């Protein structure tokens, strides 16, 4: 088993005592030499006075002067999911920024589920955007990449030049959640061992080679590294009283006034997000008259199934 280490961070929270957040960091060797993932590693600290220093990894490929393409992954994947999209986008002249959310990939991993909240993920991502001084951002978000990315857009709509939503939506806790999601949430919270690579494979329509499944497993040497992956489904606002449900409702008010280009590229075989593209298209002014497309022979992890096709659609749309 790979050697790992814990980083104890003492955080002053305005109380008489200090609180310790325990972080795990995947050994570099575990995520080096993975198939189709030759990208240089980049890091910055995204913690604040409450969190303490937390290291976030991100891929940064393509010309620095090119249009920014922010690629946000979801659960339980990491930036490896974008390995098929980054080379053609970068070759076309776009600067591709693909962060690993905290708890995923090469980023630090707090060990307690209670360390992860929707609001904290947003704060960590804002720190990345601010430190990299990113503006005129073209956002591509899938799964939780939409739940986070659309909230970032609602907070600072002027910062985003365009949006492409893929197999995602911004839930408000109103209405019934898809049965497929409820089954997934129950599984994720109860299964003794969260099989990350197998989950990715099952969420694809096309065969996933064994070495690719292993690459998705690589950032998680054992179960202690998976608190972030475990808790994410439980953070989705499913009831009006859930944390962040009200903030997501407020974000929709901004989205319903968003007039910059908004594209949907959804899969034809995603049982969790089927039909969500119609809600986005009908609700967001910027989605009018855009070349929306359903990607055939693809499922929830649409980037794994059809990464090159997605990149081609984005290039035709933006450049």
3D architecture notes:
- There is one protein chain.
- The protein is built from ten helices and eleven strands.
- The strands form two sheets. It has an eight-stranded mixed β-sheet, with helices on both faces. A three-stranded antiparallel β-sheet has the order 1-2-7, with no helix packed on it.
- The radius of gyration is 18 Å and the shape is globular.
- The longest helix has 17 residues, at 302-318.
- By secondary structure, it is α/β, with parallel strands linked by helices.
- 33% of the residues lie in helices and 19% in strands.
- The model is unreliable at 1-18 (pLDDT under 50).
- The chain has one domain (27-318): Alpha/Beta hydrolase fold, catalytic domain (Rossmann fold), CATH 3.40.50.
What's the helix and strand layout?
Elements: E1 5-12, E2 18-25, E3 42-45, E4 55-61, E5 68-72, H1 86-91, E6 95-99, E7 109-110, H2 118-131, E8 137-142, H3 144-155, E9 160-166, H4 179-190, H5 196-202, H6 210-217, H7 227-235, H8 245-255, E10 262-267, H9 276-283, E11 293-295, H10 302-318
Parallel strand pairs: 5-6, 5-8, 8-9, 9-10, 10-11
Antiparallel strand pairs: 1-2, 2-7, 3-4, 4-6
Helix pairs in contact: 2-3, 3-8, 4-7, 5-6
Give a quick summary of the entry:
The chain has helices at residues 86-91, 118-131, 144-155, 179-190, 196-202, 210-217, 227-235, 245-255, 276-283, 302-318, and strands at 5-12, 18-25, 42-45, 55-61, 68-72, 95-99, 109-110, 137-142, 160-166, 262-267, 293-295. With 319 residues, the protein is an alpha/beta fold. The strands form two sheets. The protein has an eight-stranded mixed sheet, with helices on both faces.
């Amino acid at each position: 088993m790979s050697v790992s280490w814990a980083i104890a961070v003492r955080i002053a929270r305005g109380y008489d005592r200090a609180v310790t957040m325990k972080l795990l960091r995947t050994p570099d060797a575990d995520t080096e030499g993975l198939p189709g993932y030759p990208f240089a590693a980049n890091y910055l600290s995204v913690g604040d006075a409450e969190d303490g220093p937390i290291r976030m990894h991100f891929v940064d490929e393509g010309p620095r002067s090119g249009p920014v393409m922010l690629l946000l992954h979801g659960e339980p994947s990491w930036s490896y999911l974008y390995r098929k999209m980054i080379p053609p986008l970068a070759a076309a002249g776009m600067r591709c920024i693909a962060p690993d959310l905290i708890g995923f990939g090469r980023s630090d991993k707090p060990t307690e589920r209670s360390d992860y909240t929707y609001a904290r993920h947003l704060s960590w991502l804002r720190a990345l955007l601010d430190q990299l001084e990113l503006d005129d951002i073209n956002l591509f978000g899938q799964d939780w990449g939409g739940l986070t990315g659309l909230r970032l857009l609602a907070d600072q709509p002027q910062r985003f030049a365009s949006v492409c939503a893929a197999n995602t939506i911004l839930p408000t806790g109103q209405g019934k959640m898809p049965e497929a999601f409820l089954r997934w949430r129950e599984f994720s919270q109860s299964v003794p061992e969260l099989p990350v690579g197998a989950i990715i494979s099952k969420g694809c329509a096309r065969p996933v080679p064994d070495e690719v499944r292993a690459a998705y497993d690589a950032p998680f040497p054992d179960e202690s590294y998976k608190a972030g992956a475990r808790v994410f489904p439980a953070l989705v606002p499913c009831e009006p009283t859930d944390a962040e449900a009200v903030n997501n409702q407020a974000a929709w008010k901004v989205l319903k006034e968003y007039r910059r280009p908004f594209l949907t590229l959804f899969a034809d075989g995603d049982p969790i997000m089927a039909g969500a593209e119609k809600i986005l298209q009908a609700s967001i002014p910027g989605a009018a008259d855009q070349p929306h497309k359903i990607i055939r022979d693809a499922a929830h992890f649409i980037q794994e199934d059809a990464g090159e096709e997605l990149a081609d659609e984005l290039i035709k749309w933006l450049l």
